[in-house]
Amino acid sequence: MFSVKELVESSTMVSVPSNYVCHKTPEDSMLYYETENIPTIDFHQLTSSNSNERSKAIQQLGDKCRDWGFFMVINHGVSETLREKVLREGQSFFDLSKEEKMEFAGKKILDPIRYGTSFNVMVDKTLFWRDYLKCLVHPHFNAPSKPPDLRETLEEYSRKGKEVVEELLKGISLSLGLEENYIHKSMNVELGCKMLVINCYPPCPKPELVMGLPTHTDHGLLTLLQQNQLGGLQIQHKGKWIPVNPLPNSFLIITGDQMEILTNGKYKSVVHRVVVNTKGTRISVGTAHGPNLDTIVSPAPELVGDDNLALYRAIKYRDYIYCFSKTMNSKQRLIWNV
């Protein structure tokens, strides 16, 4: 396996290898860029003991999930020191020698630890400008033993992120008119699958020719994401690609396919992509929080009725992940009711 980082560092690149050149789709070409303020949720208000303040925050959370499927969370209580540490030590993993990194090169989608490149080199017709480290951090924690401090940092970061997402899921349940712990119980979140991914997007001499990651949705319930100072994430909103410039010390939250299925389309998973740059290496850390692997996900019965038929067929989360590993467009192919 030849990583993008090694490719960039192996020579003075002036052009992009042909197997990385992406053919743009009509969707890529038709949509245009626009700067727009990304919606924000104040976590402190969402967890407030003041019932009026919390109720207002829950309503705002529901509005953001319905209208955007994407938002920033501020005042979340995770220290800036820890957030910076996980980015720094995440990047240090990619600075290891090829031999050291290859110790963690898994081959299966649900391997506990998996280092790789692109999306899935076994099926990708075009390679993407991205190296990654994926770790299953829940219900059993897994992380590389190198570099020395990475495992301990990821464990603390995963625990803190889990606390944030679980409160968001409570708020989302209430925003749907359901009992506070509805999503936790129905999706068996306590034993849910949580996959932490550290992405490395090295600088590219011709960024307009490649993609860090193509247009896609995430497969879980919610993804909690942070990045270093270099942007590249773009979301699709009302026919436009909007570059994401997060507020300092904020988390980005992305709604996933299982949330769309569970809510019967009320809260849709958001389409997004990653572009690269010539300036430097972008590092992002995303944790996909999903149901238990053996949970069968279907529209919540409380959100289905005679005037609101089920739009999606039931599917076991484990099976959905396997299908997702073959194509990042599994949502269009699998979850619509037929």
Structural domain count: 1
Radius of gyration, whole Å: 19 Å
Pick out the low-confidence regions: none
The CATH architecture classification is Sandwich
Question: What is the assigned CATH homologous superfamily?
Answer: B-lactam Antibiotic, Isopenicillin N Synthase, Chain
Distance between the ends: 39 Å
How many β-strands, per DSSP?
15
Instruction: Categorize the overall geometry.
Output: globular
Protein name: Fe2OG dioxygenase domain-containing protein
GO molecular function, one term: oxidoreductase activity
Keywords: Cytoplasm, Iron, Metal-binding, Nucleus, Oxidoreductase, Vitamin C
Domain Fe2OG dioxygenase: 191-291
Describe this protein's structure.
By secondary structure, the chain is of the alpha+beta class. It has one domain: B-lactam Antibiotic, Isopenicillin N Synthase, Chain (Jelly Rolls). It has 11 helices and 15 strands. The chain has an 8-stranded mixed sheet. A 5-stranded mixed sheet has the order 1-10-9-12-7. Strand 9 and strand 10 form a beta hairpin. Helix 5 packs across helix 7. The longest helix is centred in the middle third of the chain and has 26 residues. The radius of gyration is 19 Å and the shape is globular. The N and C termini lie far apart (39 Å). The model has no long low-confidence stretch (mean pLDDT 91).
